[in-house]
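Hi again,

Forgot to attach this to my earlier email, sorry! This is the prediction with 2-acetamido-2-deoxy-beta-D-glucopyranose bound. I've pasted everything inline since the attachment limit keeps bouncing my files.
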Amino acid sequence: MIYHLFLFSFIYIFNNIHAVNVHYPAIFIPGDGGSQIWARLNRTLPPPHFFCSRHSNWFELWLDIRLILPEVIDCFVDNMRLTYNETTKKTSNLEGVETQIPGFGGTSTVEYFDSSGFPYSSYFAPIVRSLVTLGYTRGVNLRGAPYDFRRGLDEQDEFFANFTQLVKDTYELNNQTQVVLVTHSMGGPFALYWLHQQTSEFKAKYIRSMINIAAPWGGAIKALRLMISGDNIDVYIVSPIRVRPYQRSAPSTAFVMPSVNFWDKDEIVVVSPQRNYTVNDYEALFNDIKFPTGYAYWMNNKDLLNELKPPEIEVHELYGSHIPTPGVLLYDNRTFPDLQPIVLPDDGDGTVNIRSLLGFKNWENKQKQDIHSLEIPGVEHLAILKHPTTINYVTQVLTGQFDKK
Ligand SMILES: *[C@@H]1O[C@H](CO)[C@@H](O)[C@H](O)[C@H]1NC(C)=O
Ligand SMILES: *[C@@H]1O[C@H](CO)[C@@H](O)[C@H](O)[C@H]1NC(C)=O
Ligand SMILES: *[C@@H]1O[C@H](CO)[C@@H](O)[C@H](O)[C@H]1NC(C)=O
Ligand SMILES: *[C@@H]1O[C@H](CO)[C@@H](O)[C@H](O)[C@H]1NC(C)=O
Ligand SMILES: *[C@@H]1O[C@H](CO)[C@@H](O)[C@H](O)[C@H]1NC(C)=O
Ligand SMILES: *[C@@H]1O[C@H](CO)[C@@H](O)[C@H](O)[C@H]1NC(C)=O
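Structure tokens for the complex follow:
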């Protein structure tokens, strides 16, 4: 009898948790590097080393950390990099490299960078896990929208069409409940671009609000460093010059370069022995580093998103601050452009400059929907995704507790 009572109350509590907590469904939109990329090789051109595979079945290219170990990394970079066709203005994989972005609609490929699930490779996992313990279900009211993050906004039409369908499907699957968009980093500007294409009727019907975590509304100086001399891949220590061919080849790197709306026209962002560059000198900068394709990427993307235009839905902005973040890049004769610059620090989250994180302030008084924001001082760009304050905030919004405040 006691046993039955116990069981009964357990079931009751469980159902109650479920009924009380699950409110709005969520769709997670990752940032640069936050989706998995699978590849299949049938290469005709010789790879960089004799030991690089030429032929393969489908395998996880981004990101299997074993592929970015010294030596093997050159094979990895060569399979990740894109080539640009100046006539069509489109990028493609190298000949004989086929890629796909698995897991659209589910969360598994946006929860971890590396599918082995090592804790240090976790991405949206801590947020997703907390929601699951509250009664949320992966694939039903927790959805993911992974995409080919190497590409800029100019090459994402198919992704955005799929995304629109995912929003509608998620709404229907959850008894016609409005959806909350949860973005990290570059996922924020991508979502804003998509929102600008939707009618106010569509947004009112399908979207409850958007939570942007560490969104670079005005770009980041760090992207310039990637373009000029390469950079580590987030937490992974790799040789910048060896990953640079991939980083340069990705139009998304150009998309997140500092915006002319956020940096002053005489503000120096890069110093080289020959000249100083502002955000209006990108053409000269790319010519000087002998990578004019980077400027073409910038031109193809720079006017697609008006980041000063509000999304016209309720928004929540979470961002870290007070972490040294690249501010000005100082190169000398020895370092320009192949070695790492001396970096003058700026305020920010370690990756994104504070002025860019605060870009949502441009929307104030331009939309009738509320804009909420929360600064989390001392929290880094990626670490913010597992910070208890972030997890709690996202939970409050999704469970509808925030609405009651
Ligand atoms: C690999 O490419 C070659 C020619 O480039 C082609 O003949 C062959 O069928 C391809 N193999 C597969 C498995 O697609
Ligand atoms: C670029 O695209 C055009 C048009 O499809 C094609 O004719 C040309 O061969 C391509 N160039 C390269 C270098 O692949
Ligand atoms: C869009 O959805 C279709 C159908 O599910 C899929 O084949 C395609 O790969 C998706 N494309 C992108 C870019 O997500
Ligand atoms: C779906 O919504 C209707 C109307 O709001 C409600 O009566 C019904 O109980 C809901 N069903 C579920 C499964 O939540
Ligand atoms: C770059 O700017 C610095 C600081 O304003 C100045 O001292 C330097 O002369 C400039 N260098 C060139 C090459 O214009
Ligand atoms: C750096 O290069 C400039 C221009 O080529 C030259 O004038 C200058 O002397 C060089 N400085 C050093 C320290 O080599």
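The first strand starts at residue 26 and ends at 29. Residues 37-98 form one domain.

That should be everything now.

G.
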